[in-house]
Specification:
122 residues, mainly alpha, de novo design (two linked rop proteins)
């Protein structure tokens, strides 16, 4: 079995979300300057929000609030999926980049969904 959980940083869900956040933040940096107040702003803010919500929920100390923040993090992942599709359709990113990031996003969502289920959150 894995190492004991001593901190939110030990959670695989947080680790995947943090890595994805870095990927998305870097991706946003490559978008056109015209998107500074559009997709760039949205993606950068959200890139930080997923891992931050997992950490915040972990620190709440009760299952109800923890689940609420985990589900909020999952909502952010779905928002990213939509933003990726916009970036792809607008030809700001290549299809290859879109699918690579989408695969990372889906892995983060899969692990997060498992954590939510393990806490009885459906």
């Amino acid at each position: 079995m894995g190492e004991p959980i001593r901190s939110y940083r030990d959670l695989v869900a947080w680790q995947k979300a943090f890595k994805l956040g870095l990927t998305l933040y870097r991706l946003a940096a490559g978008l056109p300057e015209a998107e500074k107040f559009g997709l760039i702003s949205q993606m950068r803010r959200g890139a930080v929000d997923v891992a931050s919500s997992i950490a915040r929920g972990y620190g709440c100390g009760n299952a109800h609030d923890y689940l609420w923040f985990l589900k909020a993090a999952r909502g952010e992942l779905y928002k990213f999926d939509t933003q990726l599709l916009f970036a792809s359709e607008l030809k700001y990113i290549t299809d290859e980049t879109c699918w690579a990031v989408k695969a990372e996003l889906e892995e983060a969502e899969r692990v997060l969904a498992g954590l939510i289920r393990s806490l009885g959150g459906g």
